[in-house]
Amino acid sequence: MNNVASVLSRLITSALIIILVAMVSYWVLGLISPDETRNLNLAQYLLQVVSGDLGQSQFYHQANLQLVLQVLPATFELVLVTSLLVVLVVIPLGLFTAIAPQHKLARSIMAVSLIGISLPVFLTGSIMVYFFAVELNWLPTFGRGTTVPIGSWQSGLLTVSGWQHIMLPAATLSLALLPLFLRLLRAELLQVMQSNPVRLAQAMGITPWRIWLFYGLRNATLPMITMAGLQFGTLMAYTIVAESLFQWPGAGSLFMQAINRSDGPLVSAHLILVAIMFLSVSAIADLAYGLFNPPLAAWRRQ
Amino acid sequence: MSLHLKPSTRLLSVRDLHVNFTSRWPQEPNIDVLRGVSFQLERGERLALVGESGAGKSLLATSIIQLLDSSARIRQGSVHFEGQDLTQLSSKQLRQVRGRRIGMVFQDPMTNLNPNLTLEQQLLQCILSHRNISRAEARLVALHKLRQVHIPAPETRMRQYPHQLSAGQLQRATIAMALALEPALIIADEPTSALDVTMQAEIISLLTHLCHNNGVALLLISHDLSLVAHASDRCLIMYAGQIVEQGHTKSLINDAQHPYTQSLIRALPQMSEPGQSLYQIPGQMPFAQELGNQCAFANRCEHAYAACWNQPPARTVTLEREVSCHLVNPATAPTPAESEP
Amino acid sequence: MNAAKYHGHHIWRRFRRQQLWLQLKANKVALISSVILLLLTVTALLAPWLSPFDPSVLQQQNIMDAELPPAWHEQGDSRFLLGTDGLGRDLLSSLLHGIRTSLWVGFWAVLLQLTLGTVLGLCAGYFGGWMDRLVMRLADFQLTFSSLMLAILVLAITRAAMGAHDYHVWSPWLLILVLGLADWPQYARTLRASVLAEKHKDYVAAAQVLGYRSRHIMVMQILPNTLSPLLVIATLQVAHVILAEAALSFLGIGMPYGNPSLGGMMGSGFEYMLSGLWWIALMPGIALVLLLLSINLVADWLRDALDPKNIGPQQ
């Protein structure tokens, strides 16, 4: 019963936040395109939003929701490939730098990661474009290549050209996130390795790789999920920068276009969608946290 | 040497063990926390190690299995176990001893078990680390051991996480883990201090019975002399990083010779009459760095005299009893005039 | 332990003991990065006198000088040490002015953050109750949403509402305001934690008994004890603000085009990079990384040096 109450209170706060954001976006709509709000008062606008109508773009003359849903797969795939890259690189590097902190290679990795934190995403992006696209001419620098429809989802992950196009933007984005997560994982692992359970495991002669995997990495998962949830805003901001840099046809590019064209309805629709996305990600992070946290998971089962 | 005399029954032999903590400050000297600890343990013997907090009991336990903090270092001495000196082993060889030949039970089961793994997973990690058997076989071993420690409904319990079990059950589970690989020795470091008083006697008797039935030697560490009195064959009394007295538990309690042991016994609640206030040993144990060339107990000892402040006492070995005290040593014992306060 | 003697966060006392200076001498990385930071700051302050050209004076630009590579390149021109951009402006001059802009924005925004975060954190910690809950909830929200994302939204919307021309009259001030108002939670959290820890200590109670008002107690007693963690956060935040300013200028919603800023230079240089003219985007990029890296390293060192646990010889 506790469970239902918490879900319910969460839904109510989420609805309240979305209505609040919708009010702000009405105000923004009036600021950017005063014509749009002349024949539409706040109550009417809110009613429209609640019924799922986010208005029509001034530039495209198309429903805003439609426009965003068309470009969302591009952004989603970019974020997905980026996250996979980050996880695939961070776990082995984090383990290595924590297992052998004094090793020369581990020290250089940490030094590079410190420089990496100071590298802005658009600089790594520019440098990669220069090397891989201009000098070597290996990879394309803009767009997402050939896409294949899966239902209404246009996927670029099923074609060679799609993968070629996603390489540079995804690598750029993950390079921006890597140093932070690497340093966090390493610090977390080093702390876990000082804990009582690990001491008992060592006293019982448990194989080192089992300790690192089932004690170190497993016990570092929860704090890392929390951190990942906290970094969502930064990820969104970086995605906007990377999308504009590589002219990636995603939601970030669409938003910047709407800004440059002063397309009020499209900008305000974006605001509401960002709020929805933000709320869903925090819900997903909580869910994942519960999944990996035995006390919470058990409480849910009861 | 003496090891060759009784090779069949001698299990553990700690000789002149010195452990110190290295200071981060170069101007500060390194602090010897264990200062020449020596004792032996026979196969199947139950040995108690008693002393107040800070005496170095836990440090002794972790230095036997060579699991020291990075700042602690064995400066001198040896730890012979089943014929090999553990201080000389590589970490790979040590791993063959830890868990497999020496089981370990720590103080607080709530913080020592991994909160994110079920009991089964933790037991399996331990068993599979040492034995080349299938998961199913390992699971059977784990179940068997959980039954031995009297955990009710072990099949369901082992699928649960630590936070779903009581402290008593968790400590039983860690005992099961310590026994899982049929070791020759179990070191239990204050195994009941984190438990309810009602639970303590139960866990101690479970531990001693299991060790006795399986022929496992037990090193039981506690600050509570009354708790270990019935659970041990022999007893070591530790004070400020040294063993001050050792002997058979019964005779030690009936006829304590070191003033510290005598005060410990006087301080037992059973020893005071109802309505009478409990005896307290005056003063505090000195810090390791404060100890000069003197008896460590001199500042709290009722019988202290000139010699106690001038040199540390030598070990006096009589039949089945070892005492480090000037009073007991015929060479340094005070003349009647000196012993008058 | 001897370390106990050094406990307490009083930074000035430690300055007086020359602990910081001694530790700086011992730590090569920190020493080099603080020298670089000092050099960059001085050149930025003296940019109007040091730079060979004034980027804002149109008469000094010549389209014939456009897209010249750095001077050491065979097609380079000795007048333009680091080459020129697409409009024939000297990159070195723009760069010096750009660093000046970055530091200027960083300084004022961090000052604003520091003030806001300090006030909110002190109030949350000292008064507790609903004020504490509200401030901490807002802080959580702001941390998750990130200051960069908030700045992108606010600045982008303002630009769309004002139009590019009007917007760029105000954008430098707006930039400082938004970045200054967005990134307060870290200060507030640190201060709140320190206040909660200090609140029940004897000297605060003593001050209350003596009849000092709560504001006086907070400012005069608690604040000095939390100076060093605040200093570390503020230093890190300068780098953070500079990075955010560059990202916003890169997106075209930060500094106006005429105003040289490192992010803006890289944004307009990116087009040229595609045709192989790497220096226009790369030169400001290198300057930016040098600036950020030296600030981050100094902050890293400050954190270690001011941590009471780490007082004593380096290992």
Q: Name the CATH class of chain C.
A: Mainly Alpha
Oligomeric form of this entry? heterotrimer
CATH superfamily of chain C: MetI-like
Q: What is the CATH architecture annotation of chain C? A: Orthogonal Bundle
Number of discrete helical segments of chain A: 13
* Class based on secondary structure composition and strand pairing of chain A: mainly alpha
Which residues of chain C sit in consecutive blocks of at least 5 with pLDDT less than 50? 1-9, 311-315
Class by alpha and beta content of chain C: mainly alpha
The H-and-E topology of chain C, N to C, reads as HHHHHHHHHHHHHH
Q: State the share of residues found in helices of chain A, binned by percent.
A: over 70%
Number of strands of chain C: 0
Largest interface, with Cβ-Cβ < 8 Å? A-C, 45 and 43 residues
Q: Please work out how many helical segments of chain C DSSP would assign.
A: 14
**Which overall shape of chain A is indicated by the principal axes computed on the Cα atoms?**
globular
Distance between the termini of chain C: 17 Å
Q: Could you report the average pLDDT of chain A, rounded to the nearest whole number?
A: 86
Largest sheet of chain C: none
Count the strands of chain A?
2
* Domains of chain C (count): 1
What is the radius of gyration of chain C? 23 Å
Topology:
The complex is a heterotrimer of chains A (302), B (341) and C (315).
Chain A: H1 2-32, H2 34-38, H3 42-50, H4 64-99, H5 104-117, H6 121-135, E1 148-150, E2 153-155, H7 160-192, H8 196-203, H9 208-230, H10 232-245, H11 251-260, H12 264-292, H13 294-301
Antiparallel strand pairs in A: 1-2
Chain B: H1 2-5, E1 10-21, E2 31-42, E3 46-50, H2 57-64, E4 72-81, E5 84-85, H3 91-97, E6 102-105, H4 109-112, H5 119-130, H6 135-148, H7 154-157, H8 167-179, E7 185-189, H9 197-214, E8 217-222, H10 225-229, E9 234-239, E10 242-248, H11 249-254, H12 259-266, H13 306-310, E11 315-318, E12 321-324, H14 336-339
Parallel strand pairs in B: 3-8, 3-9, 6-7, 7-8
Antiparallel strand pairs in B: 1-2, 1-4, 4-5, 9-10, 10-12, 11-12
Helix pairs in contact in B: 5-6, 6-8
Chain C: H1 11-16, H2 19-26, H3 28-45, H4 47-50, H5 91-127, H6 129-145, H7 147-162, H8 164-182, H9 185-199, H10 202-209, H11 214-225, H12 227-251, H13 262-274, H14 279-306
Helix pairs in contact in C: 2-14, 3-5, 3-14, 5-6, 5-8, 5-9, 5-12, 5-14, 6-9, 7-8, 9-11, 9-12, 10-11, 12-13, 12-14, 13-14
